[in-house]
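Standup notes
- DV: blocked on the single-chain target, sequence here:
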Amino acid sequence: MYGENVPQTSSDLWSLPMQGDRKPVPVANSPFNELNGQFSPDGKWIAYSADETGQMEIYVVPFPAGSGKWQVSTTGGMWPRWSRNGKELFFVGPDRQMKAVVIKASGVSFEASPPVMLFETLLNFVTGIVRPQYAVAADGRFLLIVPSVKEGAASASLTLLQNWMPTRTQ
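- DV (later): unblocked, structure below
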């Protein structure tokens, strides 16, 4: 999957088949910005960010084809990432909170729980940033890119937080 900026339709998402005629196929191309596309681990769903409501939200669509589009965020969202088993989808809200939704999907049926907050981040929710700001490891740990909290710091530093206890709210 890749993104392309087109004057008529803003930022769009496309997939490029690795076999056959290798002709690009549109995944999400509308007058709105669609960014940060992510295939589910089983390859049957794509999660992405789009601004069709006036703010960036997280959507899921079937892949490679099918009908339906589900908005899984409720108060904004960027940078969707799937859990390794595809049963959770993570994203960052404009409040800088890492959030998760539980996914139930089979065949053409898709359902997502309401988002729950996992933990606070220092990620900068800027809609123009399209590169990933975090990754989810196979064991469920998060690796985040965060700015240095020291004003005027002369060198960059790396802080690794291990064994954190998530705060889940309902």
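- Follow-up: The two ends are 33 Å apart (CA to CA).
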